[in-house]
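Students often ask what a holo structure prediction actually looks like on paper. The answer is less mysterious than it sounds. You provide the chain, you provide the ligand, and the output is a string of discrete structure tokens encoding the 3D arrangement of the protein together with cytidine-5'-monophosphate.
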Amino acid sequence: STTPFLKGLNVLVTAGPTQEPLDPVRYLTNHSTGKMGYALAEAARDLGATVTLVSGPVSLPEPEGVNIVHVTTARDMFAAVSDNFKHADITVMAAAVGDFRAETASPQKIKKHGHTTLTLELVANPDILAWAGEHKRTDGSQTLCGFAMETEHLVENAARKLAEKHCDMLVANNLRDPGAGFATDTNVVTILTPADDTDDPADESHNIADIERIGQMPKTDLAKLI
Ligand code: C5P
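The corresponding structure tokens follow.
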């Protein structure tokens, strides 16, 4: 049995992909299965937290003892997160949110007849993690953890996200690493936290993150570690 050291705390987790409709039969999405986010929600529950899991469409069973909010689009996910964020002591955003959507989904099925090309015009979705970073309480009583999946320049991109999105922790994984990525049961991550010596005005390393490389491990174990 585990010490319930998150007892009395509210933990908010996002998981899974989003689906952005193009027309009544098609959508834009990605390969996220929700495994990492669901493992995080279950780990927090096992540590005694009150957990809200905002989940995009996945085929995983609903975890017991967790408040689950099902969403489809990035904007749905944004609405669910903004409803719950104020009361969250710890927020972990593991969802693979679609960066773009069709501004207006076609009300009828898009037909191929007579077309050899099709141009989709996309508009940016809200960045939920960035919003949370901007809206967290200034007294340090809310902890915000983001994820980053990259295919190159892992640490540089992750360090920039950590700073720009005002995260307290960023979990970075490289899609190209064996044992990392979407449908696997394991992950290989690098955990970045802000360097904690930023109070010293003579210290010019304020953009430097502390970096911890974690070897391949099951997502369930990694969830507990995070
Ligand atoms: O910038 P990027 O999308 O790679 O950042 C990844 C992190 O930001 C993840 O934690 C993801 O859940 C979060 N995110 C978000 N809303 C978006 C895009 C990403 O919360 N629209």
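DSSP finds five helices and twelve strands in the chain.
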